[in-house]
Amino acid sequence: ALQRSVANKAQKQSQRLQYHLQPRASFKVAILGAAGGIGQPLSLLIKMSPLVSALHLYDIANVKGVAADLSHCNTPSQVLDFTGASELPNSLKGVNVVVIPAGASRKPGMTRDDLFNINANIVMNSVEAIADNCPDAFIHIISNPVNSTVPIAAEVLKQKGVYDPKKLFGVTTLDVVRANTFVAQKKNLKLIDVDVPVIGGHAGIMILPLLSKTRPSVSFTDEEVEELTVRIQNAGTEVVEAKAGAGSATLSMAYAAARFVESSLRALDGDGDVYECSFVQSDLTELPFFASRVKLGRKGIEALIPSDLQGLTEYEQKALDVLKPELKASIEKGCQFC
Ligand code: NAI
C-alpha cells in the first residue's frame, strides 16, 4: 500500500510538472516593456504557460539579461530578446498576442493621468509597429492612463487601416483580481469561487465594482459596499504609497496580466467559455469605450455582456452616472492626441 501511495504521489507530481512542461498549443506572445517592473514577472508567468511556444521580449534597454535568465527555465517556450527601436518590428512578426506594459509608472501624489505625456507617445509608437507587423494580433494595453491609451491605440490602428475593435483590450484585470480578493476576505468566502465584475474605466471613481453581481451571491450592508468600493478604487494608490517612490503595482499586475493573456490564448485555442472584464470599444453605454465583461473567442471579443448593467442597485447606478463625464473626458483626450 505504501509503495502504491508513493507511486501515486509521484505520478500526480509528474502530471503537475507536465502541465508546465508539455506544450499544448503554439502561440507566440510579445511583451513590449519586458525589462520593467511589470514586464519581468509577467514574462516569467507567461514562460510557464503550456499554450506558448515563443516569448518575444522587447524593451529599449536591459532585456538581454532578462531573456537569458528566463530561457533557463525548463518550460517549452523559446525566449527571444529584442532591444531598441530598430528591433521592434522583428519582435512583433508572427505574434498572436502583444502585451504593452511599457512606460512610466506612478510615484506618490501622481494620478494615472499625470503619466499621459510620457506614455501616450510610447503607446502610439508601439501600436504603429503592431499595425505594420502583426495587425491580426490581440493587443493588451497595460500602460496608463488606460482610459486614454486605448483610444490612442484605436486611432493609430484606424489611421493605418487595420483597426479591429474586437482585438484591442485595455487590461483592467487587476481591478477584478483586487475586488475578488477584498470581497473574499471581507465575507470569509473561498477565494477561488469569488467573481466580481468591474465596469467603467481604470482610474479612481471610474473603477466601478458591481458588488451586487458578485458570484456566489452574497449580501452586503451599505457600509460594506461603500468601504469595499472605495478600497477597490484606491487599491493602486495603496501600493504606490507603500512602495514610497519605488513605483506602482508590479507583481499583482503581472499576475492579473498573465491571467488575461492565458484567457486570450485559451479563447484563441477554441475554448468556448472564456469571459474577462476589459476596457474595450463598446455600445453598452453612450461612451465609445467602456470596461465590462466580454466573451472571448478565436477572433477576439465575441460578445459584450449587457446583463451586467441591468438591475444595478441605486448606489451602483449613481456611481455609474457620476463616472461617465470623467471617463468621457479621458477618452476624448486620447482620441484627440493622434
Ligand atoms: P517600469 O518603469 O518598471 O517599466 C517600464 C518599462 O518600459 C521599462 O523597462 C522601460 O525601459 C520600458 N520602456 C520605456 N519606454 C519604452 C518604449 N518606448 N518601448 C518599450 N519599452 C519601453 O514601470 P512598470 O511598473 O512596469 O509599469 C508600466 C506601466 O504599467 C505604467 O504605465 C503603469 O502605470 C502601468 N500600470 C498599469 C496597471 C493596470 O492595471 N493597467 C497597473 C499597474 C501599472
TrEMBL record:
Its EC number is 1.1.1.37. It is an enzyme of class 1 (oxidoreductase). It comes from the Eukaryota. Keywords: NAD, Oxidoreductase, Tricarboxylic acid cycle. Residues 28-170 form the Lactate/malate dehydrogenase N-terminal domain. Residues 172-337 form the Lactate/malate dehydrogenase C-terminal domain. Belongs to the LDH/MDH superfamily. MDH type 1 family. Homodimer. This is malate dehydrogenase. The lineage of its organism: Eukaryota, Viridiplantae, Streptophyta, Embryophyta, Tracheophyta. The chain holds residues 69 to 406 of 406 of the full protein.
